[in-house]
Write a structure and sequence with these properties.
By secondary structure, this protein is of the alpha/beta class. Helix content is 37%, strand content 22%. It contains 18 helices and 27 strands. Strand 13, helix 13 and strand 14 form a beta-alpha-beta unit. Helix 10 crosses helix 13 and helix 11 packs across helix 12.
Length: 574
Amino acid sequence: MRSDRNWPNLATMMFALAREWPAKPMLRAWRNEQWVSLTWAEFGRMAASCARHLRDAGVSAGDRVVLCMENRPEFPIAETALLALRAIPVPAYTTNTIDDHAHILRDSGARVAIVSSTTLANRLLAAATKAGGLDLLVTMDSVPDTEPPPAPNPVRIVPWHGLIGDSRSPDDIAAEAAGIPATALACVIYTSGTGGTPRGVMLPHRCVLSNCAAAIELVESLHLKDEIYLSYLPLSHSFEHTVGQFFLLGLGTEIVYARGVEHLAADMLSVRPTVLTVVPRVLEVIRQRVLTQVAREKPFRRRLFQTAMAIGQKRVDGRRLTVTERLLDPVLDRLVRAKVRARFGGRLVAAMSGGARLQPDIGRFFQALGLTIMQGYGQTEAGPVISATRADAIRLDTVGKPLDGVELRIAGDGEILVRGDLVMDGYWNRPQDTAAAIRDGWLHTGDIGELDDGYLRITDRKKDMIVLSGGENISPAKIEGMLMAEAEIAQAVVAGEGRGGLSALVVPAETCDDIAVAFAVNRTNLRLSVTERIRKHALVAPFTIENGLLTPSQKIRRMLVIRANSHVLDSLHR
């Protein structure tokens, strides 16, 4: 994607690129025990075929259509087809419960769903029974084994392969799509619900397109060309939806869909990606595993690692290396740093971190190992990228500068306010929530931050501030990040609202016990002010997607964790 391109909408962008790069590899997935590639020309044909058949099946402009599938080529094919018809894709997490799906179906009014597996089809049908039914269900891998809701609301079930077999040129569908204005609604993406019931964010084409156009400048210094991207974050999440799909495809990057998080390490070694998007939790886990492995090495190898890290961090900080360090640096890079980089496949040019706050120490760790970690900030309501660090101007204690075309200011209470083409149209069917979020054209993000020479630094969530009984305002995000940066701590939630001091609910890292965690908490306390220090802590069970304490995008649902462990917290404060 060149900065001089001005696409009117996302469907036109996709069909135009298919015409420009017909033989270029576009998408790759694991099929029949091997990686199978799809070219841009094949994509364009399938998307147009899908659009024609969906229209014949009754899908028309304005219809909301749930997309529920793992990351796979069918996702952008189906979405592009829907966009071309002016229908409205509603991406949904594969980890959603029946009740989650029922809420989305009921709230969005979707009467059509496109799913992959039998499990997901069964779940959608059960949700439809609660939400008032479905008119059409498209299934990819097999036919659901659950009986559809009884008449008078029969569900028409059609196989995916019947939609994509048309061999005609996509020109007719592309021509129709060309008339869609940038202001038209592109999709409705439901928030992951860290603060309550998920709300449908209405994103017009201009939101995603403005993100894509502005992000080009961030990666210019990397000279990206014919890159390979490993996609594993859910495409139903706005960060992956915009950055890991439309933006990277617009650059000509080949998207390779990982087989799943459980295969991520193996897929990195097999695919050897050059570009990656990550949530901070993934980087935290890899760092922890590296440090655990180093701790088991012989003293000589541990000293080699420590020396390599010390020199690397000195370089990251811009400090001058001694003559000895300059001589040692390339040797240590081959012996130490290259082995860690090999965990990512050995060819990684850059990783883009988003979705949550990245602790500066975590970023410094990987930068010292020779990996470029770009950090971004945003939210679904803003396309979703608001700011990001340039690859050649990284400041690890910040989330970079606002994207080109983004107006950003800090309100009197510290809240970050944003205005520009990236801002959503509002929340689906929630005019009061929309009016509260967008005032005088400014999106009120709910995040607290500050500007430093144009760079944005996030300090907390406005609604997550803890007020102690003495009136002190405490930022839990800062302390939780510091705790989770310790190798002994996997997850942490800080509590203390209305109390005399703070306590922490801690999930220990693998093989770590309460004594090891206690030392980690004490080390953290030494870097905190008196009012910020953790007075007591307790070990608790992991926060997972399955128990509802972790969102599908790996964000901890703080208030639900506190509620689920209220008895533990009460005992700590006795």
